[in-house]
Amino acid sequence: MFLRKIFLLFILCNLVIVSKAQIKALTTEGEEVNLYDDGTWKYINDTGSVPKKEAHIDTTVTSSTTFSKSTDANFSLKSTKLNLSVFFNSKKWSVEKGKPGEAGEFNFQLIGEDVQAKFISERMEIPLNTLAEVAVKNAKKVAPDVKIIKKEYRIVNGLKVLFMQMDGTTNGIKFSYLGYYYSFDKGSLQFVSFTSQALLIMYRSSMEELLSGLVKQ
Fold first, then answer.
1. Which are the contacts of 50, defined by CB distance < 8 A and separation ≥ 6?
2. How far apart are CA 37 and CA 166, in angstroms?
3. Is 120 exposed, middle or buried (0-12, 13-18, 19+ CB in 10 A)?
4. C-alpha–C-alpha distance, residues 188 and 80, integer Å
5. Cα–Cα distances in Å, from 48 out to 9, 33, 44, 55?
6. Do residues 168 and 142 both lie within one domain?
7. At 198, is the secondary structure helix, strand, or coil?
8. Residue 9: helix, strand or coil by DSSP?
């Protein structure tokens, strides 16, 4: 239960990404810019110019492995906000709908184990780069030492999603977060699973199996 409370705190901080996200960043030339939700940017000291489209080159690699829902999946949940579903094994994972005001649409628990996951959907298209940047920024609010351990694009049941593993420490507990981030013209999604860093090797396959149950309907 303690792990659940810590994770909910992390998610509540992460929820703020959905409205009017604005990030300060530095260009390769050292100029300060603001990044906006719609993928545009503007020099901080350039008050008269119109926001420009992001000019940076995305160097994130795409995994050569393709991912698909498990053959053991016997149940599916469909989002009420987006035309996305999650296929999973209900004998392995329990699930609850998020309560009004909570960050997630669905809360998953690996039955009898210390692993949870959150399905956070939003009816706002947010560029993936912006989504990832703000997710990291908000994660640092509860885990100041958070670091991206791995970041890559993946093809999951035909969808191109951004995968990130983030490690950080909250209240002295070292956590690992595995997440799929997806955005399209109907909205955006964060599908994040977490456990302690010490248990990640044991649970990683189960966590990635759940995440890879993401399907666009």
1. 42
2. 22
3. buried
4. 13
5. 39, 14, 10, 19
6. yes
7. helix
8. helix
pTM score of the predicted model: 0.77
The domain spanning residue 9 has which CATH number?
Answer: 3.40.1000.10
Give residue-wise pLDDT tens across range 91-101: 999 999 998 87
User: Residue 58: what pLDDT?
Assistant: 74
Token pair of 171 as six digits = 């209240």
Q: Is 65 helix (H, G, I), strand (E, B) or coil?
A: strand
29 and 10: one domain?
no
Q: State the Cα–Cα distance between residues 134 and 116, nearest whole angstrom.
A: 21
Report how far residue 144's alpha carbon sits from residue 138's, in angstroms, rounded to the nearest whole number.
9
Question: Are 64 and 44 in the same domain?
Answer: no
Q: Could you count the other beta carbons within 10 Å of the beta carbon of residue 169? A: 14
Identify the DSSP state of 197.
G
Q: Which structural domain, as residue segments, surrounds residue 73?
A: 2-16+59-216
Phi and psi at residue 15, in whole multiples of 5°? -65, -30
CB 92 within 8 A of CB 111: yes
